[in-house]
Amino acid sequence: MVADDAFGTAATSGSAEAGPPEGPLVAYFADAQGVLTAARELIRNGIGVAEIYGPYPLHEADHLLGRRRSRLPWVTLAAGACGTAMALGLQFYTNVLHWPMNVGGKPANSLLAFIPITFELTVLLGGVATAGAFLAASRLIPRLRPPGLLDGVTDDRFALVVDHLAPGFDEKEAQRILDAVGGGEIRSPKTSEATFEGKV
After folding, report:
1. CATH (domain of 165)
2. By residue range, what is the domain housing residue 170?
3. Does the reported pTM lie above 0.70?
4. Judging by beta carbons within 10 Å of its beta carbon (0-12, 13-18, 19+), is residue 111 exposed, middle or buried?
């Protein structure tokens, strides 16, 4: 009922030796309510939840995991402000200081004429910096993949990763809770053959 070939262990259910878990326990669910219920039950019994993966954001999951408010808006603000300052500075320097031109008697430092480029550079730097910060913070870097997750996670099903590094972690108790709440498929680093109960 538990399995893992993705964690790189070769032990089978009959030959697994007792000892601390070598990797996280991962349970898969077909809907958001199932994974949130499992997370609540694990936390209520003193078992930590390391991460919840899904096809779309679950705001209640952030609350259950104790996540603080995202700091990405500050990255966007800082990058956008830099883009605004760079655009205004470049245009003022080129049009007013370095190469002033008399175009129909209009003032060289017309702020209205600077708006289009300023807007575009603000959005460009803000968007690129936000995307880069998000990928870095989420560790979504090429060649890096969360270990032990089956195909389909974030496509049409949810995954819950139990915090196996917490002091006093009891894998059997976590397994029992996940079975009780309907974890359709549960993977553990101590076995090598997956089973699927049809609950997902």
Report:
1. 3.30.70
2. 2-54+158-187
3. no
4. exposed
